[in-house]
Predict the structure.
Amino acid sequence: MKPVTIQDMRLHVIAMPLVELLKTSFGAEPYKSAIIVEAVGSDGHTGWGETALKTKPSYGSETILTALHITRDFLIPKLLGATLDSPIQAAEMLKPVRGNHHARAGVEAAIWDLMAKASDMRLADYFAHHLPPGNDPSDAATVGVSIGIQDSLDQQIALIQKRVDEGYGRIKLKISPGWDLELARAARRHFPDIMLMLDANSAYSLADADRLRQLDQFDLLMIEQPLAYDDIYEHSRLQPQLKTPICLDESIYSAHDWRIALELGAGEILNLKPTRVGGFTESIKIYELCQERGTPLWIGGMLETGIGRAANLSFAALPGVNLPSDISATDRYFAPDITEPPFVLGAESSLKLPQGPGIGLEVQRDRLAAAEARWREYNPFAPLF
Ligand code: OSB
Ligand code: MG
Protein backbone atom coordinates (compact mmCIF):
# COMPACT_ATOMS: atom_id res chain seq x y z
CA MET A 1 0.00 0.00 0.00
CA LYS A 2 1.35 3.41 -0.98
CA PRO A 3 2.09 5.99 1.77
CA VAL A 4 0.57 9.42 1.13
CA THR A 5 1.58 12.87 2.38
CA ILE A 6 -1.36 15.16 3.15
CA GLN A 7 -0.70 18.39 1.32
CA ASP A 8 -3.97 20.22 1.81
CA MET A 9 -7.44 19.76 3.30
CA ARG A 10 -10.35 21.94 2.22
CA LEU A 11 -13.85 22.14 3.65
CA HIS A 12 -17.07 22.73 1.73
CA VAL A 13 -20.20 23.33 3.80
CA ILE A 14 -23.26 22.52 1.73
CA ALA A 15 -27.06 22.63 1.80
CA MET A 16 -28.98 20.50 -0.71
CA PRO A 17 -32.71 20.45 -1.45
CA LEU A 18 -34.14 16.98 -0.77
CA VAL A 19 -36.53 15.30 -3.20
CA GLU A 20 -38.43 14.05 -0.13
CA LEU A 21 -38.02 15.37 3.41
CA LEU A 22 -37.43 12.86 6.19
CA LYS A 23 -39.64 13.72 9.15
CA THR A 24 -38.65 11.77 12.27
CA SER A 25 -39.84 11.85 15.88
CA PHE A 26 -37.46 14.82 16.30
CA GLY A 27 -38.71 16.72 13.24
CA ALA A 28 -37.42 17.47 9.73
CA GLU A 29 -34.85 19.94 8.41
CA PRO A 30 -35.58 21.74 5.13
CA TYR A 31 -32.19 20.91 3.55
CA LYS A 32 -29.73 18.11 3.72
CA SER A 33 -26.59 19.67 5.19
CA ALA A 34 -23.03 18.36 5.34
CA ILE A 35 -19.38 19.30 5.42
CA ILE A 36 -17.58 17.89 2.40
CA VAL A 37 -13.91 17.25 3.17
CA GLU A 38 -11.43 17.39 0.30
CA ALA A 39 -7.99 15.93 1.04
CA VAL A 40 -5.19 16.58 -1.45
CA GLY A 41 -2.22 14.22 -1.49
CA SER A 42 1.31 15.14 -2.58
CA ASP A 43 0.89 12.55 -5.34
CA GLY A 44 -1.84 14.73 -6.88
CA HIS A 45 -4.83 12.55 -5.89
CA THR A 46 -7.92 14.03 -4.24
CA GLY A 47 -9.88 12.17 -1.57
CA TRP A 48 -13.44 13.04 -0.56
CA GLY A 49 -15.20 12.55 2.75
CA GLU A 50 -18.57 13.60 4.12
CA THR A 51 -19.37 14.83 7.60
CA ALA A 52 -23.11 14.11 7.58
CA LEU A 53 -24.88 16.22 10.20
CA LYS A 54 -27.92 18.29 10.84
CA THR A 55 -27.90 21.97 11.73
CA LYS A 56 -29.55 21.17 15.09
CA PRO A 57 -28.31 18.83 17.86
CA SER A 58 -31.34 16.57 17.30
CA TYR A 59 -30.05 13.17 16.15
CA GLY A 60 -26.85 13.50 18.17
CA SER A 61 -25.06 16.31 19.95
CA GLU A 62 -22.94 17.51 17.03
CA THR A 63 -24.11 20.08 14.50
CA ILE A 64 -22.67 21.40 11.26
CA LEU A 65 -21.17 24.38 13.09
CA THR A 66 -19.64 22.39 15.98
CA ALA A 67 -18.12 19.99 13.45
CA LEU A 68 -16.76 22.88 11.42
CA HIS A 69 -14.98 24.26 14.48
CA ILE A 70 -13.59 20.85 15.52
CA THR A 71 -12.53 19.94 11.99
CA ARG A 72 -10.86 23.24 11.12
CA ASP A 73 -9.23 23.97 14.46
CA PHE A 74 -8.34 20.52 15.83
CA LEU A 75 -8.51 17.73 13.23
CA ILE A 76 -6.98 19.19 10.09
CA PRO A 77 -3.92 20.61 11.92
CA LYS A 78 -3.11 17.08 13.12
CA LEU A 79 -2.94 15.67 9.61
CA LEU A 80 -1.57 18.49 7.46
CA GLY A 81 1.91 17.61 6.20
CA ALA A 82 1.78 14.11 7.74
CA THR A 83 2.91 11.09 5.73
CA LEU A 84 0.48 8.24 6.35
CA ASP A 85 1.03 4.53 5.80
CA SER A 86 -2.61 3.72 6.33
CA PRO A 87 -5.93 5.46 7.11
CA ILE A 88 -5.88 3.63 10.45
CA GLN A 89 -2.87 5.74 11.36
CA ALA A 90 -4.93 8.86 10.59
CA ALA A 91 -7.68 7.58 12.89
CA GLU A 92 -5.12 7.13 15.67
CA MET A 93 -3.86 10.69 15.18
CA LEU A 94 -7.40 12.07 15.36
CA LYS A 95 -8.41 10.04 18.42
CA PRO A 96 -7.05 12.45 21.06
CA VAL A 97 -9.90 14.73 19.96
CA ARG A 98 -12.55 13.28 22.23
CA GLY A 99 -16.13 12.77 21.10
CA ASN A 100 -17.04 14.63 17.91
CA HIS A 101 -17.48 11.34 16.05
CA HIS A 102 -19.09 12.73 12.92
CA ALA A 103 -16.36 15.35 12.55
CA ARG A 104 -13.60 12.74 12.87
CA ALA A 105 -15.41 10.40 10.49
CA GLY A 106 -15.62 13.00 7.72
CA VAL A 107 -11.90 13.69 7.83
CA GLU A 108 -11.01 10.01 8.08
CA ALA A 109 -13.29 9.17 5.13
CA ALA A 110 -11.42 11.64 2.91
CA ILE A 111 -8.15 9.90 3.88
CA TRP A 112 -9.61 6.44 3.11
CA ASP A 113 -10.67 7.62 -0.35
CA LEU A 114 -7.34 9.37 -0.98
CA MET A 115 -5.26 6.35 0.05
CA ALA A 116 -7.42 3.85 -1.85
CA LYS A 117 -6.92 6.01 -4.96
CA ALA A 118 -3.16 6.20 -4.34
CA SER A 119 -3.13 2.38 -4.31
CA ASP A 120 -5.44 2.29 -7.35
CA MET A 121 -8.03 0.20 -5.48
CA ARG A 122 -11.79 0.43 -5.13
CA LEU A 123 -12.67 1.54 -1.62
CA ALA A 124 -14.52 -1.76 -1.00
CA ASP A 125 -11.40 -3.76 -1.88
CA TYR A 126 -9.30 -1.41 0.20
CA PHE A 127 -11.59 -2.03 3.21
CA ALA A 128 -11.29 -5.80 2.64
CA HIS A 129 -7.51 -5.37 2.58
CA HIS A 130 -7.78 -4.18 6.23
CA LEU A 131 -9.82 -7.25 7.25
CA PRO A 132 -8.88 -10.94 7.61
CA PRO A 133 -9.00 -13.11 4.44
CA GLY A 134 -12.49 -14.19 3.38
CA ASN A 135 -13.95 -10.68 3.46
CA ASP A 136 -13.88 -9.83 -0.22
CA PRO A 137 -16.75 -7.50 -1.20
CA SER A 138 -19.51 -8.31 -3.68
CA ASP A 139 -20.16 -5.98 -6.59
CA ALA A 140 -23.48 -4.83 -5.13
CA ALA A 141 -25.15 -4.38 -1.74
CA THR A 142 -28.74 -5.11 -0.73
CA VAL A 143 -30.55 -1.94 0.33
CA GLY A 144 -33.83 -0.61 1.64
CA VAL A 145 -35.48 2.78 1.99
CA SER A 146 -36.31 4.96 4.99
CA ILE A 147 -39.66 6.78 4.85
CA GLY A 148 -40.48 9.78 7.02
CA ILE A 149 -43.65 10.52 9.00
CA GLN A 150 -46.45 11.66 6.66
CA ASP A 151 -49.56 13.76 7.35
CA SER A 152 -52.01 10.87 6.97
CA LEU A 153 -52.13 7.08 6.77
CA ASP A 154 -53.32 7.32 3.17
CA GLN A 155 -50.26 9.34 2.21
CA GLN A 156 -48.03 6.95 4.09
CA ILE A 157 -49.47 3.91 2.32
CA ALA A 158 -49.21 5.62 -1.08
CA LEU A 159 -45.55 6.38 -0.45
CA ILE A 160 -44.80 2.80 0.61
CA GLN A 161 -46.56 1.62 -2.56
CA LYS A 162 -44.37 3.94 -4.65
CA ARG A 163 -41.18 2.59 -3.06
CA VAL A 164 -42.34 -1.04 -3.41
CA ASP A 165 -43.13 -0.37 -7.08
CA GLU A 166 -39.65 1.08 -7.54
CA GLY A 167 -38.24 -2.22 -6.30
CA TYR A 168 -37.29 -1.62 -2.66
CA GLY A 169 -37.50 -4.91 -0.78
CA ARG A 170 -37.20 -3.49 2.72
CA ILE A 171 -39.18 -0.56 4.06
CA LYS A 172 -38.34 1.41 7.21
CA LEU A 173 -40.98 3.69 8.68
CA LYS A 174 -40.35 6.45 11.18
CA ILE A 175 -42.63 6.33 14.21
CA SER A 176 -43.42 8.43 17.28
CA PRO A 177 -45.87 7.94 20.15
CA GLY A 178 -49.37 8.00 18.64
CA TRP A 179 -48.01 7.34 15.13
CA ASP A 180 -47.07 3.72 15.61
CA LEU A 181 -49.66 0.94 16.09
CA GLU A 182 -52.17 2.15 13.51
CA LEU A 183 -49.36 2.86 11.11
CA ALA A 184 -47.85 -0.62 11.48
CA ARG A 185 -51.31 -2.22 11.24
CA ALA A 186 -52.15 -0.34 8.04
CA ALA A 187 -48.74 -1.03 6.51
CA ARG A 188 -49.06 -4.75 7.24
CA ARG A 189 -52.63 -4.91 5.95
CA HIS A 190 -51.62 -3.37 2.62
CA PHE A 191 -48.25 -5.13 2.34
CA PRO A 192 -48.53 -8.51 4.09
CA ASP A 193 -45.21 -9.80 2.75
CA ILE A 194 -42.77 -6.89 2.72
CA MET A 195 -39.73 -6.74 4.97
CA LEU A 196 -40.92 -4.03 7.35
CA MET A 197 -39.16 -2.25 10.21
CA LEU A 198 -39.77 0.80 12.38
CA ASP A 199 -37.42 3.52 13.66
CA ALA A 200 -38.45 5.47 16.78
CA ASN A 201 -35.38 7.73 16.99
CA SER A 202 -35.54 7.61 20.82
CA ALA A 203 -39.16 8.72 21.17
CA TYR A 204 -40.28 6.26 23.89
CA SER A 205 -39.53 5.41 27.50
CA LEU A 206 -39.60 2.16 29.43
CA ALA A 207 -43.10 3.07 30.63
CA ASP A 208 -44.25 2.51 27.01
CA ALA A 209 -43.25 -1.19 27.09
CA ASP A 210 -46.87 -2.40 26.87
CA ARG A 211 -47.52 -0.30 23.79
CA LEU A 212 -44.28 -1.37 22.15
CA ARG A 213 -45.08 -5.03 22.85
CA GLN A 214 -48.24 -4.69 20.75
CA LEU A 215 -45.96 -4.13 17.75
CA ASP A 216 -44.88 -7.78 18.03
CA GLN A 217 -48.00 -8.86 16.11
CA PHE A 218 -46.81 -7.14 12.88
CA ASP A 219 -43.85 -9.41 12.15
CA LEU A 220 -41.32 -6.61 12.09
CA LEU A 221 -37.72 -7.19 11.07
CA MET A 222 -36.68 -4.95 13.98
CA ILE A 223 -37.48 -1.78 15.89
CA GLU A 224 -34.73 0.80 15.83
CA GLN A 225 -33.74 2.88 18.89
CA PRO A 226 -37.01 2.91 20.86
CA LEU A 227 -35.54 4.46 24.04
CA ALA A 228 -33.27 7.37 24.94
CA TYR A 229 -30.45 8.36 22.60
CA ASP A 230 -27.89 7.99 25.38
CA ASP A 231 -29.29 4.83 26.98
CA ILE A 232 -28.11 1.24 26.82
CA TYR A 233 -29.30 -0.17 30.14
CA GLU A 234 -33.04 0.47 29.79
CA HIS A 235 -32.97 -1.12 26.33
CA SER A 236 -31.72 -4.24 28.12
CA ARG A 237 -34.84 -4.05 30.31
CA LEU A 238 -37.09 -3.62 27.28
CA GLN A 239 -35.67 -6.29 24.94
CA PRO A 240 -36.80 -9.31 27.04
CA GLN A 241 -40.35 -7.89 26.99
CA LEU A 242 -40.47 -7.84 23.16
CA LYS A 243 -40.35 -10.50 20.48
CA THR A 244 -39.30 -7.90 17.92
CA PRO A 245 -35.50 -7.53 17.89
CA ILE A 246 -34.25 -4.14 19.06
CA CYS A 247 -31.72 -2.50 16.76
CA LEU A 248 -29.56 0.20 18.32
CA ASP A 249 -28.62 3.35 16.42
CA GLU A 250 -28.18 6.62 18.41
CA SER A 251 -26.73 5.04 21.55
CA ILE A 252 -23.80 3.14 19.98
CA TYR A 253 -20.70 5.23 19.31
CA SER A 254 -17.98 2.56 19.33
CA ALA A 255 -17.13 -1.14 19.33
CA HIS A 256 -16.87 -0.78 23.11
CA ASP A 257 -20.48 0.48 23.33
CA TRP A 258 -21.74 -2.38 21.15
CA ARG A 259 -19.88 -4.97 23.23
CA ILE A 260 -21.50 -3.59 26.39
CA ALA A 261 -24.91 -3.53 24.73
CA LEU A 262 -24.53 -7.18 23.72
CA GLU A 263 -23.37 -8.21 27.17
CA LEU A 264 -26.39 -6.50 28.72
CA GLY A 265 -28.79 -7.88 26.10
CA ALA A 266 -29.81 -4.36 25.12
CA GLY A 267 -30.45 -5.28 21.49
CA GLU A 268 -29.87 -7.94 18.86
CA ILE A 269 -28.98 -5.88 15.80
CA LEU A 270 -26.79 -2.86 15.09
CA ASN A 271 -27.39 -0.03 12.67
CA LEU A 272 -23.77 0.84 11.90
CA LYS A 273 -23.38 4.39 10.64
CA PRO A 274 -19.71 4.87 9.91
CA THR A 275 -20.20 8.61 10.51
CA ARG A 276 -21.68 8.07 14.01
CA VAL A 277 -18.89 5.78 15.24
CA GLY A 278 -16.06 8.12 14.20
CA GLY A 279 -15.20 6.55 10.85
CA PHE A 280 -14.30 3.40 8.97
CA THR A 281 -11.48 2.35 11.31
CA GLU A 282 -13.96 1.97 14.18
CA SER A 283 -16.49 0.51 11.73
CA ILE A 284 -14.02 -2.26 10.90
CA LYS A 285 -13.65 -3.06 14.63
CA ILE A 286 -17.43 -3.22 14.97
CA TYR A 287 -17.69 -5.37 11.83
CA GLU A 288 -15.24 -7.87 13.31
CA LEU A 289 -17.06 -7.85 16.66
CA CYS A 290 -20.37 -8.64 14.91
CA GLN A 291 -18.75 -11.51 13.02
CA GLU A 292 -17.25 -12.85 16.25
CA ARG A 293 -20.60 -12.65 18.09
CA GLY A 294 -22.70 -13.70 15.11
CA THR A 295 -24.95 -10.64 15.36
CA PRO A 296 -26.62 -9.28 12.21
CA LEU A 297 -25.24 -6.05 10.77
CA TRP A 298 -26.38 -3.41 8.31
CA ILE A 299 -25.22 0.06 7.33
CA GLY A 300 -27.35 3.08 8.20
CA GLY A 301 -27.47 6.45 6.51
CA MET A 302 -27.77 10.16 7.20
CA LEU A 303 -29.16 11.20 3.81
CA GLU A 304 -25.61 11.31 2.48
CA THR A 305 -24.64 12.85 -0.84
CA GLY A 306 -23.00 10.52 -3.35
CA ILE A 307 -19.68 11.04 -1.53
CA GLY A 308 -20.82 9.57 1.77
CA ARG A 309 -23.16 7.06 0.13
CA ALA A 310 -20.51 5.58 -2.17
CA ALA A 311 -18.24 5.01 0.84
CA ASN A 312 -21.06 3.50 2.91
CA LEU A 313 -22.10 1.31 -0.02
CA SER A 314 -18.51 0.09 -0.39
CA PHE A 315 -18.64 -0.98 3.27
CA ALA A 316 -22.11 -2.50 2.87
CA ALA A 317 -20.76 -4.75 0.10
CA LEU A 318 -18.57 -6.61 2.61
CA PRO A 319 -19.88 -10.13 3.32
CA GLY A 320 -20.40 -9.55 7.07
CA VAL A 321 -23.08 -6.94 6.30
CA ASN A 322 -26.03 -9.31 6.06
CA LEU A 323 -29.22 -7.22 6.33
CA PRO A 324 -30.42 -4.54 3.84
CA SER A 325 -28.72 -1.19 4.39
CA ASP A 326 -30.26 2.33 4.48
CA ILE A 327 -28.59 3.38 1.26
CA SER A 328 -31.11 4.26 -1.43
CA ALA A 329 -30.90 5.28 -5.07
CA THR A 330 -29.92 8.87 -5.91
CA ASP A 331 -33.46 9.83 -6.96
CA ARG A 332 -34.70 9.13 -3.40
CA TYR A 333 -32.54 12.04 -2.23
CA PHE A 334 -31.38 14.58 -4.83
CA ALA A 335 -32.12 15.87 -8.31
CA PRO A 336 -29.25 16.09 -9.04
CA ASP A 337 -26.58 14.94 -6.60
CA ILE A 338 -23.10 16.55 -6.47
CA THR A 339 -21.56 13.34 -7.86
CA GLU A 340 -21.87 11.37 -11.09
CA PRO A 341 -22.98 8.82 -12.08
CA PRO A 342 -26.17 8.44 -10.03
CA PHE A 343 -26.99 5.27 -8.10
CA VAL A 344 -29.88 3.41 -9.71
CA LEU A 345 -31.82 0.67 -7.91
CA GLY A 346 -31.08 -2.71 -9.50
CA ALA A 347 -32.48 -6.21 -9.31
CA GLU A 348 -33.38 -7.63 -5.89
CA SER A 349 -33.29 -4.24 -4.17
CA SER A 350 -29.58 -3.73 -4.72
CA LEU A 351 -27.16 -0.95 -5.64
CA LYS A 352 -24.03 -1.64 -7.67
CA LEU A 353 -20.65 -0.44 -6.46
CA PRO A 354 -18.98 2.19 -8.62
CA GLN A 355 -16.03 0.66 -10.45
CA GLY A 356 -13.31 3.33 -10.29
CA PRO A 357 -10.63 3.63 -7.57
CA GLY A 358 -11.65 5.03 -4.17
CA ILE A 359 -15.33 5.99 -4.00
CA GLY A 360 -15.43 5.65 -7.80
CA LEU A 361 -17.57 8.75 -8.42
CA GLU A 362 -16.76 12.13 -9.98
CA VAL A 363 -17.53 15.15 -7.83
CA GLN A 364 -19.20 17.86 -9.92
CA ARG A 365 -17.39 21.06 -8.92
CA ASP A 366 -20.11 23.38 -10.27
CA ARG A 367 -22.82 21.62 -8.25
CA LEU A 368 -20.61 21.58 -5.16
CA ALA A 369 -20.12 25.35 -5.49
CA ALA A 370 -23.87 25.87 -5.91
CA ALA A 371 -24.54 23.79 -2.79
CA GLU A 372 -22.00 25.90 -0.87
CA ALA A 373 -23.71 29.10 -2.02
CA ARG A 374 -27.06 27.66 -0.87
CA TRP A 375 -25.58 26.93 2.55
CA ARG A 376 -24.36 30.53 2.90
CA GLU A 377 -27.84 31.77 2.10
CA TYR A 378 -29.59 29.22 4.35
CA ASN A 379 -27.24 28.98 7.36
CA PRO A 380 -29.72 29.66 10.16
CA PHE A 381 -26.97 30.68 12.59
CA ALA A 382 -24.83 33.06 10.54
CA PRO A 383 -24.96 36.04 12.90
CA LEU A 384 -23.47 34.13 15.86
CA PHE A 385 -20.96 36.86 16.65
O1 OSB B 1 -32.31 7.37 12.39
O2 OSB B 1 -31.55 6.25 10.77
C1 OSB B 1 -31.87 7.34 11.24
C2 OSB B 1 -31.43 10.07 8.59
C3 OSB B 1 -30.94 11.10 9.37
C4 OSB B 1 -30.82 10.92 10.73
C5 OSB B 1 -31.17 9.71 11.32
C6 OSB B 1 -31.63 8.65 10.54
C7 OSB B 1 -31.79 8.85 9.15
C8 OSB B 1 -32.35 7.85 8.25
C9 OSB B 1 -32.01 8.02 6.78
O3 OSB B 1 -33.15 7.01 8.60
C10 OSB B 1 -31.49 6.84 6.08
C11 OSB B 1 -30.92 7.24 4.72
O4 OSB B 1 -29.85 7.92 4.66
O5 OSB B 1 -31.53 6.91 3.71
MG1 MG C 1 -32.22 5.38 13.17
Residues 26 and 58 are 6 Å apart (CA to CA).
